[in-house]
Structures are given as C-alpha cells and as structure tokens.
Specification:
Number of helices: 16
Oligomer: single chain
Strand content: 15-25%
Distance between the termini: 63 Å
Helix content: 25-40%
Radius of gyration: 22 Å
Structural class: alpha+beta
Number of strands: 23
C-alpha cells in the first residue's frame, strides 16, 4: 500500500502541494504565488489557467521535495479558496472570463437588486447566507451580463461553472476529455445556490438569479473518489477529497464534535464552530456545511468571515513599503509598546461578519504626531485580533457554546506577538497545533479516509498535537478599554460608499 497522501491547497495568493505520512507529518511541500489582478477599485481577479498551471508545477515539485513519485500516493485531496467563481467552455476548457475572486465587490448593485423588498436575508433560511458580493452566485450573474452569449450557452450546457475546486477537479480528471464536473457541499454552500437541508441546488434561487442548473456541478460528498488523474504528475492517482479551505482547516484541527472551534489566519480570517447535525441560523454569521464524509449525515458550522487580516500586512508591504517581507511586521510592531492610540480598520472591500456592510471602507483612526510606522504595524496586527473577537462574541450569542479555548492555524500563527494579543483580547487560551497549515492536512485526511488510508475521525484525532499555547495576561479593564476604542474606530468606516 502507498505510504503517503497528497493535498493541493489552492489559496487566494498561492498554490501549494503537500505530502503527508500516516502520522500527519509533512514529508514534502512546494508552493508558488499567482498574479493578483485589480482591473478597477474593488475588483479582484485571478487567471484560472495560470492557477491550473501552478497546480501542476507544485505537484511535481512537491513530490520531488518528498523524494517520492506519484505511485507512492494513496490519494490526493483538494482544498481551495471558496466563492471564487470560474465559468469555462465545456469543449475547450477555456475560461470565458477571469476568475472573479471572493474579495471582489463589483456585484454590489446586482446584490441590491436581488434583495428587492425582502432585504439581504431573502434566501438565508434556505442557503444560510445573506445576499452579498462575497458569494459565487452574483458573480455568475455579472458574467452573464457582461460577456456576450454566455447566458445562452449556459442554458444549453456549453459552458460550466465551478468554484476553484471544481475547476481543478474537472481539468485534472481529463478536462474536455471526460473531466468530472463535481463539487462538495462545503463549496456548494458558498454559492448562495444550495439548499442546506437537501444538499442540492435550490430551484427557487436558481430561478431568481437566472442561473441554469445545466452549468452547475454535481454535489458529491467531501470524502469519496471522484475520479483518477489523467496526464500530468497525478496520472492514475485517485482524487478523493474536496473541502473548502476553512472547512478543511476544521478537519485538519480534528474539530469533529459540536462546540469545537478554530480560527484560520490567512489573507482573511475565518472562525468556525461546529454545530453538529443542526444547521443553526444566525443574523450575524454564516450557516455553512462543515463536512460530509461518504454516506454519513452532514455536519454544519457557524462561520464568521473577516475579509482582510493577512491582506492588511500585504498592504503595508506592497502599497506603503513599510516592510519588505510579511514576517518583518512582527519585528516592526515590537519596536513600540502599544498602538500609540492608532486603530487600523482594514475594510478594503467592506466589512464581513458580524456587520455585513459592503459600503464600509478602511480607516486609520486616532492618528497623532506621536504615531510612527511601528504603531501602524502593531495596529494592523491588533486589527486581526479585534475582528476575531467580534466574531467570537457573535458565535457565543448564536451557538450558546461559550468559548473555552481557540485552536488556530494558517500563515499568521507564527506571529507570536499577534497570538499573545489574541489571547489577551479574547480572555481565553490560544492553541497552535504541531502542523499549523491544517488546511492542506484536512484535505489530505478527507482524501485518505475515502481510500482507507485513515480509518475514520478517531485516526485523525489521534494525530492532532499541540505545539504552543498562549494564555491571557491582560487585565479585564484594559481589555474592555481597547475593545471600546476599536468599536469606535469601526463605526467610522460605515456608509462610506455612496450611490452615484
């Protein structure tokens, strides 16, 4: 039997391939960035063809880094940036337009029109989501309205739609030559088009949005064999796991029980709490599918999505030039003892949970001549922790499961200044696992369970280990003062964008 499982982790800024052994240890990794395309303010695009090429590149390099060949893989899973929409031609595999990224806000008027007199919660009881530029459905409508002939071709099945997981699975299993057009419930639940109870596309929403079922992928479970790779570095290997990135991180953190919670720190932040087999409705948070393993019933989660966290550090690097590399932000922030009274609310593309204000825009508040670049670096890190606290408060209110500790993962958890401040502002312990990149690990687990490499969830639990824990050190009065000032700064972002 093969000794390893692979995972493709296709993220917002890069694609990586990781190889894991049965203990969950990383044996090989390769990663490459792809271009971020900003045609207009608020617009964010990716070249889906470039992403596909990068995927092939990192798979080959990752196998080389592990010192193995593809026959040593029992299976491969995929995890992906969610909500990013791709529409492509069935016969050629050519995208009809660039992938429209989850951060993109161009569909604000489409969303307002969809709301009508019923408001943003028009479909929430069915799909668990508010009407928002965040999700895939309105992005498809925009393509229909702006690329000639696509709507008509979609009705006849000549063009296909998918999030990035579907785009990769279709291409890796043959593309125009018999590629498998599938997705899983975790990704489908991010389109605004899926019924949370039936785990099928909802005809009433499809009709309201004018999206034909013929272009949509089949919804399969998150852990099963979808097909085999055709050509390239994964030829003949089972593609057997599919999870949206945040649900994959839940899986990798072994958050299988009701009340388990994790926070992923990446381009944005995503805090999820497992609500078991019940889809808990919320006004402030998203109700989403946590996972569906084989024939087992689905589990659900409440999610607080924060649009900009790690992306704020990238902004300090790329737009302001305050740092040369993202990790430098911690050292710069350590040059000061506090934020100097400055608060940075990075609402670059509006505010997601718990506000859902697409017309908000970023502010830096509390500036005085005393504030320097160290204070701005610290304020950017603190913004990540403050936004996470807002989501934790909303989860506690809706799920009625008080947070006792928080499992964390993602690229920013190596920043120990941030992790300590997160524990301080939450007032609970923050725990980092031995494998911080749990998104890829979760996809590997799903793929491995599908082929019997791991037996079940208990096998995954046995692999989880703690690397470091941060306990709160801040007194309650200081915590409340800082949080009050943060809330004051957030209010300054509201209603910035006005209708023309």
């Amino acid at each position: 039997m093969a000794d390893y499982v692979g995972a493709i982790d296709q993220g917002t800024t890069s694609t990586r391939f990781m190889v894991f052994d049965h203990s969950g240890a990383v044996k090989g990794v390769a990663q490459e960035e792809h271009e971020q395309i900003f045609p207009k303010p608020g617009w964010v695009e990716h070249d889906a063809t470039e992403i596909l090429k990068r995927t092939g590149d990192v798979v080959g390099a990752g196998l080389g880094d592990a010192g193995i060949n593809r026959d040593d893989l029992a299976s491969v899973g995929i995890t992906n940036q969610r909500e990013t929409a791709v529409v492509w031609e069935r016969d050629t595999g050519k995208p009809v337009y660039n992938a429209i990224v989850w951060q993109d806000t161009r569909t604000d008027r489409i969303c307002s029109k969809l709301e009508g007199s019923e408001g943003p919660d028009r479909f929430r009881s069915i799909c668990g989501l508010p009407i928002s530029t965040y999700f895939s459905g309105p992005k498809v409508i925009w393509i229909f309205e702006n690329v000639d002939g696509v709507r008509e071709r979609a009705e006849s099945g000549e063009v296909l739609f998918g999030n990035i997981d579907t785009w990769l699975l279709w291409n890796l299993t043959g593309g125009p030559d018999g590629g498998v057009h599938v997705t899983d419930p975790t990704n489908a639940s991010r389109t605004m088009l899926m019924n949370l109870e039936t785990l099928d596309w909802e005809d009433s929403i499809l009709e309201a949005m004018g999206i034909p079922r013929a272009m949509l992928p089949e919804i399969r479970s998150s852990s099963e064999v979808y097909g085999e790779g055709k050509g390239g570095p994964l030829a003949g290997i089972s593609l057997a796991g599919d999870l949206g990135d945040q649900q994959a991180a839940m899986f990798g953190q072994a958050c299988f029980d009701k009340g388990d919670a994790k926070n992923t720190y990446g381009t944005g932040n995503f805090l999820l709490v497992n609500t078991g087999t019940e889809a808990v409705q919320s006004k402030a948070l998203l109700t989403t599918v946590c996972s569906k393993i084989g024939d087992a019933p689905p589990t659900y989660a409440l999610e607080g999505a924060i649009a900009v966290t790690g992306a704020a550090v990238q902004w300090l690097r790329d737009n302001l030039g305050l740092i040369k590399d993202a990790p430098e932000v911690e050292e710069l922030a350590k040059t000061v003892d506090d934020n100097g009274g400055a608060y940075f609310v990075p609402a670059f593309s509006g505010l997601f949970a718990p506000y859902w204000k697409g017309d908000a825009r970023g502010v830096i508040a509390g500036l005085t001549r005393f504030v320097n670049k160290g204070h701005l670096a610290r304020a950017a890190l603190e913004a990540t922790a403050f936004q996470s606290k807002e989501v934790v408060d909303a989860v506690d209110a809706d799920a009625e499961v008080p947070l006792t500790d928080l499992k964390v993962d993602g690229g920013m958890v190596g920043n120990e200044l941030l992790m300590q401040f997160q524990a301080d502002i939450l007032g609970v312990s923050v725990i980092r696992p031995t494998v911080p990149e749990t998104t890829a690990l979760g996809a590997a687990y799903a793929a491995g369970i599908a082929v019997g490499f791991w037996k079940d969830a208990d096998d995954v639990r046995a692999n989880w280990g703690k690397d470091k824990q941060w306990d709160p050190q801040m007194d309650e009065q200081e915590r409340e003062r800082l949080y009050k000032m943060w809330k004051k700064a957030v209010e300054r972002t509201f209603d910035w964008v006005e209708d023309e």
